Amino acid sequence: MDLPEITITDQDLAVLRRVVREAVADGRYAAASRLGNELHRARIVPAGTAPAGCLALNRAGRYLEERSGAVRDVVLVSGRGRSSSGLVSVLSRVGTALIGLSEGQAMGWPDPRGKPRVIRLLKVEPGAG
């Protein structure tokens, strides 16, 4: 699966770079590397100019996990997530896959067991981001 184009605001980029540095300092190298790779390939736009259907930090969205058919409502956060409350950390595999996606786009990656996973962003709620 080809990687979809992603869009990140310059404001989120500053926060996400700090998240990557902190993850490295905490020894979370794999998570830092995944997120860092996404930042390198992202299209960066000024804050307030990202498309309305683009998932940014602190925005709520709904995605479909295509293998299982599960649909989840989440809020993408820069800190630690709590799946029970719908908060998903951008350092998690799902969070890294979601950052910068636009409605309708899909992102694939291998899970920890090497099996392919694909998520599709279904909806982004209006709000800050």
UniProtKB/TrEMBL annotation:
Keywords: Elongation factor, Protein biosynthesis
Pfam families: Rnk_N (PF14760)
Start and end residues of each Regulator of nucleoside diphosphate kinase N-terminal domain: 4-45
GO MF, one annotated term: translation elongation factor activity
The protein's name in its UniProt record: GreA/GreB family elongation factor
Lineage of source species: Bacteria, Pseudomonadati, Pseudomonadota, Alphaproteobacteria, Hyphomicrobiales
